[in-house]
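in:
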């Protein structure tokens, strides 16, 4: 019987061969052990930023910050062309919300009103807990009719938790205020590249986002 190893045995030995290599601990000298170079480098960086870097302090609230196009702030409920709430009470946003901060109660649309003839239902109540919300934007991505959007409003304050629970009327009032002030979210005007993408491009000659062509 031959004692030569078969090719299968050689392959198994190669697979069992350890490939992990342990590195040696770095060695530092006496000066490094005193942390003097690190302290000197930190002081030099602080002095450079203090005297040679451009100041970036904003005098808030007199000087308002300019929010990026894809900023996600306070919610709003949109209206359609006839002034009705655009939401169709499909519960998609409530289902997609990871923070469970949206509550909707649907009601049949009044069929005796000609304005609601093409609608089956609408939200009788629509509330969002702005304190529980994590402003991820999942609600507006899940909405099939673009009824809910996150605006650029960032200065959200309240004296009580109840004030931070926005009902349907308050969410519609945010839509009225932002539309009147010309502060519509960029997601309102969707383009070929999707929400907020075309707004961020400085010109048509700017490079497209990664993974997309020039025309989406």
């Amino acid at each position: 019987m031959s004692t030569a190893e078969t090719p299968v045995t050689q392959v198994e030995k190669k697979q069992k061969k350890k490939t992990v290599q342990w590195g040696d601990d770095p060695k530092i000298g006496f000066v490094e052990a005193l942390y003097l170079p690190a302290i000197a480098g930190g002081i030099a960086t602080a002095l450079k930023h203090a005297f040679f870097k451009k100041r970036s302090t904003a005098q808030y609230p007199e000087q308002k910050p300019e929010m990026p196009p894809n900023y996600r702030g306070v919610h709003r409920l949109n209206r359609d062309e006839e002034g009705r709430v655009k939401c169709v009470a499909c519960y998609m946003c409530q289902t997609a919300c990871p923070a469970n901060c949206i509550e909707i109660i649907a009601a049949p649309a009044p069929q005796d009103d000609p304005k609601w003839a093409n609608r089956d239902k609408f939200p009788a109540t629509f509330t969002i807990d702005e304190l529980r919300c994590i402003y991820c934007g999942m609600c507006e991505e899940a909405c099939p009719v673009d009824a809910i959007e996150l605006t650029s409003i960032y200065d959200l304050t309240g004296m009580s938790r109840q004030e931070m629970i926005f009902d349907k009327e308050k969410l519609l009032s945010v839509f009225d205020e932002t539309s009147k002030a010309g502060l519509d979210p960029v997601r309102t005007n969707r383009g070929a590249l999707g929400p907020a993408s075309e707004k961020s491009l400085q010109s048509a000659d700017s490079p497209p986002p990664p993974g997309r062509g020039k025309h989406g």
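note: The helical segments are 7-16, 30-33, 36-51, 92-96, 138-142, 168-180, 197-200.
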